[in-house]
Amino acid sequence: MGVSSTVHLPQTSGNQRSFKPEGTIKQGSWMNDSSTDKLLVERVQQGDKRAFDLLMSRYQHKLMSLVSRYISDYQEAQDVVQETFIKAYKALPKFRGDSAFYTWLYRIGVNTAKNHLAAKGRRPSASDVQVEDAEVYDEGYRLRNIDTPESQILTSELEKAIYEALNSLSDELRTAFSLREFDGLSYDEIAEIMECPVGTVRSRIFRARDGIDQQIKPLMEDSWGRKTSKVK
Amino acid sequence: MSEKMKEEISAMMDDESSMFGVRRVLDEVESDDELHAIWERYHFVKAALNQSSLCQTSISDRFWAELENEQTNVPDNLELPEQLSDTSVKPKLNQYISSMAVAATVAFMTVFGWQQYQGFQDQGLNIGSEFSVAGLVRDNVVVPDSTMVAKTIDQKPFLDASDTMMLSDMPYSGIQTASSGASVQGQAMVRQNLVRLPTSNNGGMTREKLNLFLSNHAEHAALNTGRGMLPFSRTANYTLVEGAGK
Hints:
- The complex is a heterodimer of chains A (232) and B (246).
- Chain A is mainly α.
- Chain A has nine helices and no strands.
- Chain B is mostly helical.
- Chain B is 54% helix and 4% strand.
- In chain B, the strands form two sheets. In chain B, strands 1-2-3 form a three-stranded antiparallel sheet, with no helix packed on it.
- Chain B starts with a helix and ends in a 9-residue tail after the last strand.
């Protein structure tokens, strides 16, 4: 398993935000989720609210990163994200899948953020994100710190727990998980690199996730204030 | 919840799950809230590792509450604009355009009909209204039209086709036309008394004939008629020069 030496794993001490492995190319690990999205969208169009809940969970952080380019206030940004989802939910019956769901969603998000600024009499910042760029938008760094001090502490604690959990993983799990999360490689590519079956990669990535999840679960339940979301 | 299902969720996140697997997860999520919580936490970890701006709370609860609130309170407000646009604004616009079109048509028909009526009255006074006096005046040259000659009532040409009268040679050599060289096609209808003029070329008859010609042409050169829009020769003024043409 000589692959692990090529993966730069995070350091739990120091600046954790600079963890991103050197020399890796962000290929947009969330950008090729079209089949899952497609199925979820179909379910929503058939009236399955829970499917839309899954879509929200999937994209709320990413959308928040996008909106934070326009709006620095956390609460305002969260309102805009929520408004974006409401617009998307209402328009989803008309969504025909000509573009990827996330592209469509980001377009709504960008327009909603701009409209929000216009309503407030403000202009979009210089770091304006064009709708066309949303698809290739790399959220690999935080453009602004829009968190409140309290939330920063919580976020910091969660991230610390995540990195600690990642470091505590076995070499195999950490490698597979890192290649997936930081390099955006597919299971096939990871299997080729790690010279193991795809099923093994799938299992390793899951076990890595599960290991991290066990570490952050208590913190998440505290900070999110509930165990799970319930769709009426 | 089985480990297999959690593994399926993990693969589904990475878009590495089969359609069957995704459907199975979705069906399970319906009845298992913990599965959804796992899905949320997995994505939270993913976002944290990608250094996204993390949502501190799940937006789901707020979203459904807001949507429910909108559906219970806002529908009237939402429906109203659509009703307005479909049943009120568009018909009003169409009605306005239709009424304007009718008004424009009536106005046009009134003006055009009045002009036609006036023209018809004028033609009623004319003899030989069918013929044209095209070529009668060209570049200050009065040329009798052969067709006009042929269509006179008494079939007696008052001028031979070969006869030409230079305006400069006439007593009214000072004639100025508004459109120099313009023909009087379709403009003037020679009146009955014009065609009965004798062909003698003495000064009195020429003056009389020219007076009639000019008065006829000036009458039909009115700009407020349909014919006035065609090229015409309008007499602005003329100066009588005694002894000219002799």
